[in-house]
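Margin note: ligand = nicotinamide-adenine-dinucleotide.
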Amino acid sequence: MKITVVGAGAVGASCAEYIAIKDFASEVVLLDIKEGYAEGKAMDLMQTASLNGFDTKITGVTNDYSKTANSDICVITSGIPRKPGMTREELIGINAGIVKNVSSSLIEHSPNTIIVVVSNPMDTMTYLVHKSTNLPKHRIIGMGGALDSARFKYRLAEAIGGPISDVDGMVIGGHSDTGMIPLTRLATRNGVPVSEFLSDERLNQVKEDTKVGGATLTKLLGTSAWYAPGAAVSGLVQAIACDQKKVYPCSALLDGEYGLNDICLGVPVILGKNGIEEIVKINLNDAEVASMKESAEGVQKVNNLLEL
Ligand SMILES: NC(=O)c1ccc[n+]([C@@H]2O[C@H](COP(=O)([O-])OP(=O)(O)OC[C@H]3O[C@@H](n4cnc5c(N)ncnc54)[C@H](O)[C@@H]3O)[C@@H](O)[C@H]2O)c1
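Resulting structure:
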């Protein structure tokens, strides 16, 4: 199993590290445009192999796509991150050009690959990869909901005062401060609805804290976060590489599902060896359906800025 990660920055390197530590891939290629940067990150990570006990071989390359040839899965993290006060949408001008060129170079050398898009604004970047590459839709997956759901579970556990492992929940919709839809109605603490433990007011606070989860960290760190994003990407990659059939909310190209068409938005999907094996249709209530529609309208506005 060969995996390429484009962008050896904060998220790319964290993602490569988690993939290596989980030890399910034979090879990870890190690629960056900055001379020597990916080589340095790869060497540093390889020097953790004996300490962390993995056999995955990590190599770094400067913009040489021939070294990525025949990758089973490619992750795109290249592009600029947010600075405090910025929205993800403001990154589109620079990141669209990068993501378009990177995806076409990847496919040239790995025509059968599955692509996981991370660069922001992620739903629009995922849509751009669909439109510019024409790969079958199950082979292009946007990562956002897996991270947002992890942040949701963190906030739920904090509010409940119990362990995160007891909590389950999902965030669907667009990967933006206004577009995320934390599904509080369906969240559980070990099978029991969280509403049994939390007041409506507290649940609303959890919802709001989840939606600004990325912005909160960007303010604290001066740039966007990387540990949880890297871990979330590694979860998606492992589900595909190991054909786990796990359910994750991912940005998928919709063709009528949830009443939406020709847009990439976060919905629950089953991930396996073919990428998106199925889009899971859950019964949303009227308020949730309205939120999905509003979220899609927000993403559509950003998609309209693309030069396709
Ligand atoms: N989807 C999500 O949930 C999520 C979460 C966190 C970050 N992000 C996004 O991921 C992206 C990366 O964030 P980061 O914190 O790792 O940024 P970073 O600046 O640390 O790393 C980005 C890397 O991309 C490289 N790069 C730029 N252009 C390139 C090109 N054409 N080819 C190859 N490499 C190139 C840069 O040299 C840099 O090393 C940002 O767009 C950020 O907003 C998304």
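The chain has two domains: 2-143, 145-303.
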